[in-house]
Design goal:
CATH topology of the largest domain: Rossmann fold
Distance between the termini: 15 Å
Strand content: 25-35%
Oligomer: single chain
Number of domains: 2
Length: 274
C-alpha cells in the first residue's frame, strides 16, 4: 500500500456533502496535517491529526481522498507508518507519473486538510501480545512502511520477540527511515540488498535478493535442522513490496520450509527496490 501513486488542481479540501459508509462501517473523516518530514529525496512522512480516528493495529492501511475545485476526486491507499497509540502517520513515495503522490510529497503543508478512511485490513497485522513467534520482516522499496509500524509497536510494547529485517532497496540514499533502522539494529538485525548502486567499499549484498541471501537471513522453519526450540519455533514472515519482490520472497520461504499460512504478504504496483 505504501508508495502508491492528484491531477493538477486537486487539494486535500474535504468534499461537500455527506460521507458514505464503505467497507463495513468505515466513513470518511477530515484529517489535518500536523507535520511533514522528508525521509528521502522522493519520500515524505505525513503526520495527521484525526480527532475521530478509532485507532489501528500494526500493519494496517488507510484510504486518502483528495478533491479538486471542480469536484473531481482521487483516492489512494497508504500503509500506516505509526505504531498503535502513536499519532496517525503515512509515508508516501513520489511516483513521477502519479496523480496523488506528487501533491502529497511536494505541495502538502502542515495545516492542510485531507480526507481519510480506515483503518483497513486484518490479515497483514501483528500484535505484540500475540504468540511469541520469531518475526521475519522483508521489504522491497517503500514496502518498509507497514513493517516500520510493526517494529515500532514491538519496541513501544517492550516485546522481546526476536525479529530480523531484510530490506531490498535501490541504494543507501533510498533507504526510508535509515536512522531509525540503524537504531533498531541493536535488537533487530537489518540486512540490506542494494539493487542498483552500492557505495565504495560496500561489503553487503549487491543485486536482488537471491536464495542464498534469503536462506541466510530467514529464521529456520520449525522442525528443520537448526530451528528454534519448540517453544519458540514456527516463525512468521511479513513481506511487503512490489509484486515481483513479494512473489520471489514468498516462494523462497516456502521452499525453505515455511508453511504458506506463515508467510503474510502485501503488494503494490509502484516501483521498488526488489
Amino acid at each position: 500500500m505504501a508508495g502508491t501513486a492528484v491531477r493538477r488542481g486537486l487539494s486535500g479540501r474535504a468534499a461537500a456533502g455527506p460521507t458514505r459508509a464503505l467497507r463495513r462501517t468505515l466513513t470518511w473523516q477530515v484529517a489535518t496535517v500536523a507535520a511533514v518530514r522528508t525521509e528521502t529525496a522522493s519520500t515524505r512522512t505525513i503526520e495527521l491529526s484525526a480527532p475521530d480516528w478509532p485507532g489501528h493495529r500494526a500493519g494496517q492501511h488507510l484510504d486518502v481522498r483528495l478533491t479538486a475545485a471542480d469536484g473531481y476526486t482521487a483516492e489512494r491507499s497508504y500503509s500506516i507508518a505509526a505504531a498503535p497509540g502513536e499519532p496517525l502517520a503515512i509515508t508516501v513515495q513520489r511516483l513521477d507519473d502519479g496523480e496523488v503522490s506528487p501533491y502529497l510529497t511536494e505541495e502538502l503543508r502542515a495545516g492542510d486538510q485531507l480526507e481519510v478512511r480506515g483503518p483497513i485490513g486484518g490479515y497483514f497485522v501483528w500484535d505484540a501480545d500475540g504468540p511469541a513467534s520469531p518475526l521475519l520482516l522483508a521489504a522491497g522499496g517503500s514496502g518498509i512502511v507497514p513493517l516500520r509500524s510493526i517494529l515500532r509497536h514491538r519496541e513501544l510494547a517492550g516485546a522481546t520477540v526476536p525479529a530480523r529485517l531484510l530490506y531490498s532497496v535501490r541504494s543507501l540514499a533510498d533507504v526510508i527511515y535509515r536512522a531509525e533502522l540503524e537504531r533498531f539494529a541493536g535488537g533487530v538485525p537489518v540486512t540490506y540488498a542494494l539493487t542498483r548502486q552500492q557505495p565504495p567499499g560496500w561489503t553487503g549484498h549487491s543485486g536482488r535478493v537471491d536464495g542464498a541471501l534469503l536462506a541466510g537471513v530467514a529464521w529456520p522453519a520449525a522442525g528443520l535442522p537448526g530451528s528454534a526450540p519448540p517453544a519458540a519455533a514456527d516463525p512468521v514472515a511479513y513481506v511487503c513490496g512490489p509484486t515481483a519482490f513479494v512473489e520471489t520472497i514468498a516462494e523462497g520461504l516456502v521452499q525453505l520450509g515455511y508453511p504458506p499460512g506463515r508467510v503474510k504478504t502485501e503488494r503494490f504496483g509502484g516501483p521498488g527496490g526488489s
